[in-house]
Amino acid sequence: MRTLTANHTMPASMLRDISLAPEGHRKIEWVSQHMPVMNMLRAEFAQARPLEGKTIAMCLHLEAKTAYLALTLQAAGARVVACASNPLSTQDDVVAALAENGVTVYAWHGATAEEYEMHLAKALDCCPDAIIDDGGDLVGMLHRDRLEQARQIIGGCEETTTGILRLKAMEEEGSLVFPMMAVNDAFMKYLFDNRYGTGQSVWDGIMRTTNLVVAGKTVVVAGYGWCGKGVSMRAKGLGARIIITEIDPIKANEAILDGFQVMPMQEAARLGDVFITVTGNINVIRREHLAVMKDNAILANAGHFDVEISKPDLQALATSTRVLKNNIEEFVLEDGRKLYLLAEGRLVNLAAGDGHPAEVMDLSFSLQALSLLYLIDNRSRLAPGVYNVPAEIDRKVARLRLKALNIEIDELTPEQSAYLASWEM
Fold first, then answer.
1. For 321-353, how does the pLDDT look when each residue is reduced to its tens digit (9 = 90+)?
2. For 220-247, what is each residue's pLDDT tens digit?
3. CA distance 387 to 375
């Protein structure tokens, strides 16, 4: 039963069950012990209170690591309101714990499309000064339905490749009305979160859900960006044979030199045992591919939206469907072949797992927090558009991570600095 819980400074939260909060608190406590950069920033923010008086709306996967970001922003003085960027990744106990900590939350696991839209709208009804988005849903609603409100927003940060693509399209057509920080494109984000985080968490989700061996199987990875690289690298380490499908000739060459086969999806479809889409595009696996797949092929998506594997085509080809176990749906085709879709085609690492490791999200969420402060501090000189994270923020997070690990590195000598700065030496 869904319940409401009051908040003294913000409207009431909407959540599943406040009594689940104790387990959520324990989850948040666990990840906080493995997020040292965020811990250092939280201590710094608690002293300086740089977000005092500001309301920040977050649309992110509501699990423990994201909750710790919300609490870190709260420690900086912000009033924080949170909604979910994916209904299947929402953890109701974490939502309850956030509400008990004074964060206004609109989310529950398994929200319908209508409920999901309502939660987004409720978050924006709190009149945020700035936003943190994951996939561009808050930005989209502001520009589609609330343009006058959008013009009052200082700006925001975007976490994902998918979201950045949408923002750049808006910027290109001149429709983006406030500045957005492309956190996804920062070195300390995509080199670690996209590659190591996605690589590990995708296979965590697949293996936890299927309980099948990976070694010896043929894995088809659609997309060889940083997420695709991570998924492929982990699959190789688990003993799989890897096939890459790509549209970019440069990335295709990179995959070849990394030791993987490259071919069109139509050819790979006949060979794969496990398919993982990581492209950010629509209908990457569709009717003509599904029609030739092996019996018992497994389909999983690691892109932001559940559109990369064509679920309408899968339904149209199937003579019967059933849920075999949690997060595994069986589709029986006319000739008796069976295909299995994991986590409804949503992000398999979050819908069927706990998402990226805490140590990885420590870096991404530190970038989010620092980029948000930069945006607010520099709002008078940032016109509407998409901005890269400043190099000094990227390097600050890198330095703090090394400090947390008690690792020191070399520094340039004055002679070396002069050499690098001169064309005559």
1. 999 999 999 999 999 999 999 999 999 999 999
2. 999 999 999 999 999 999 999 999 999 9
3. 10
Contacts of 391 (CB under 8 A, 6+ apart): none
- Residue type at position 322: R
Residue 332: how many CA atoms within 13 Å on its side-chain side? 7
Under DSSP, the state recorded for 195 is: I
Sequence-distant (6+) residues with CB within 8 A of 398 are: 187, 188
Architecture label for domain 196-346: 3-Layer(aba) Sandwich (3.40)
* Domain residue ranges of the chain, discontinuous segments joined by +: 3-185+356-404, 196-346
The helix (run of H) or strand (run of E) holding residue 299 is: strand 297-301
| 359-412 tens-digit pLDDT | 999 999 999 999 999 999 999 999 999 999 999 999 999 999 999 999 999 999
The residues, any chain, with a CB within 8 Å of residue 217's CB and separated by 6 or more, are 240, 241, 273, 274
Taking CA 108 as the corner, what is the angle to CA 103 and CA 110, rounded to the nearest 5 degrees? Answer: 160
**At CA 394, angle to CA 156 and CA 252, rounded to 5?**
90
CA neighbor of 311 nearest in space, from 337, 336, 277, 335: 277
Q: Do domains 3-185+356-404 and 196-346 have the same CATH topology?
A: yes
| CA gap 138, 58 in Å, rounded | 8
User: In the numeric block, which tokens belong to residue 372?
Assistant: 């948000």
Pairing between strand 385-388 and 179-182?
parallel
Angle at 117 between CA 8 and CA 105, to 5 degrees: 25
CB neighbours of residue 292 within 10 Å: 13
Question: To 5 degrees, how large is the angle CA 373–CA 378–CA 380?
Answer: 140
Distance CA 111, CA 92 (A): 11
The counts of H helices and E strands in the chain are: 19, 17
CATH number for region 3-185+356-404 = 3.40.50.1480
